[in-house]
Task: structure prediction
Amino acid sequence: MESIFNEELITQLVQTGTRGAVNVALALLILIVGYLVAGLIKRNVKRLMLKSDRIDETIAAFFSDLVRYGILVIVFIAVLNRFGVETTSLVAAIGAAALAIGLALQGTLSNVAAGVMIVFFRPYKFGDFVDIAGTSGTVKDINLFTTELAMVDGVKVIVPNAQSWGQVIMNYTANPTRRIDWTFSISYDDDIDKAISVIRDVITADERVHADPEPVVVVVGHGASSIDISARVWAATADHWVIKWEMWKQVKQAFDRNDIEIPYPHQVEIHKDA
Result:
């Protein structure tokens, strides 16, 4: 009798273990396949959205992420169903958990809300050079929680979306044109009108400088040892820094050719005879 009881117990344990092993194997299979399918659908959704001229890469990336997360939630529910968890009970549990998580993770949810605002109002998009949360860089990625920037020295910076949306955003590449400013100094002994003419000739000779609005070259101040002349021009945003750097060199060379002095501090040493 005892032998029969032991055999039945062993049989039940084997059957239970087998069912558990099958469920675990199927759950792992669902997770793996679901994860791969979510990534595949995300890429296809993004590709299809980018075919439209009215949808830019920022919006396409954001909504493809939403689709991926939605599929992963369905996969998670399917995995729980493999272990006998009822869907109705699961929905109620998820609702209660969502409320608790929402209260505990208010900062994270604010990042999601800010991410939605950034995508819809688009203060910046992929490829823009911006200053957000005190950090300057090129926008490389915008997702539900963060914005990724690449600084000019190659450093990767992750900025929470709540900080991006909640502070002043400076977008340097949003407009097609930008103004370029310089201040050049000349000696008090130099001819001011000649210096202004030399600066204007150098600037207007560059075909990248726009004629409208007209370049402005004016005296802006009398320094301790120099006359300060300001030059302002407009050019394409993409040419901004190249023109700014090149013009420093070209104006200095033009000053040298026209015997215009750029004053600099001098130190005079007086040696007394022993």
Remarks:
- The CA atoms of residues 112 and 144 lie 5 Å apart.
- The beta strands are 129-132, 135-142, 146-150, 156-160, 169-171, 177-186, 216-222, 227-236.
- The mean pLDDT is 82.
- Helices lie at 2-50, 57-82, 87-104, 106-121, 161-166, 192-204, 240-257.
